[in-house]
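Whiteboard transcription, Tuesday session. T.W. wrote the structure tokens on the left side:
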């Protein structure tokens, strides 16, 4: 999974009538990838209805894919990538067999290695907020070949630290789109928040020696 813009937007609980507007302004503001969480009401029809409107080079996927059944439903809906909160090798294998990119959730060293060995395109370290950027640095000691994504607690205040620690990408929700902007359905403010968040990403992503960017 190639992310030229190393930020994934997470939308959980978004209303179907509001989603299209959020998607359009976010992509126009430079965001490359958006995931709708499976436990959002109406998530599957939301993806099905909007997948054909995703601009070239942009990605619309589904997150909070917790098991194989949910993975199958997400793929059937047209999701361009899957994100899981947990390590489930059956889900990873299913995604790969259907040529769908997958970012698999993991926390411990064993889970990180298991997810990568099973074929995950990237490994989502979750919840990062409980451990911080130093934990990423520690994981990349033995696993410098594994592209990690920091999820949980990533904000404007610490995003630079996560990239310095070696993550290949980050994922965020309210700290990216803006909690107030989402609640008030203010698309102009959402666009501004997305632009500002992306601007805080390093122009050249920092990775440990021996880990090429793809």
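and on the right, the sequence the group agreed on:
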């Amino acid at each position: 999974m190639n992310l030229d813009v190393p930020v994934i937007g997470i939308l959980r609980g978004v209303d179907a009538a509001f989603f299209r507007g959020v998607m359009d302004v976010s992509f126009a503001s430079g965001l490359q990838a958006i995931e709708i969480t499976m436990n959002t009401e109406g998530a599957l029809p939301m993806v099905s209805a909007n997948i054909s409107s995703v601009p070239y080079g942009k990605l619309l996927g589904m997150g909070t894919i917790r098991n194989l059944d949910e993975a199958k439903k997400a793929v059937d809906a047209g999701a361009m990538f899957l994100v899981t909160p947990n390590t489930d090798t059956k889900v990873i294998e299913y995604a790969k067999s259907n040529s769908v990119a997958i970012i698999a959730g993991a926390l411990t060293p064993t889970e990180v290695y298991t997810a990568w060995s099973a074929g995950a395109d990237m490994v989502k370290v979750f919840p990062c907020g409980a451990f911080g950027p130093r934990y990423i640095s520690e994981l990349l000691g033995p696993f410098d070949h594994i592209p990690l994504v920091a999820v949980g607690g990533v904000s404007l205040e610490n995003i630079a630290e996560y990239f310095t620690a070696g993550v290949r990408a980050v994922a965020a929700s309210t700290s990216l789109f803006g909690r107030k902007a989402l609640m008030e359905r203010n698309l102009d403010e959402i666009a501004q928040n997305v632009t500002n968040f992306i601007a805080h990403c390093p122009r050249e992503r920092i990775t440990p020696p021996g880990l090429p960017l793809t």
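Someone added at the bottom: The chain has a mean pLDDT of 93.
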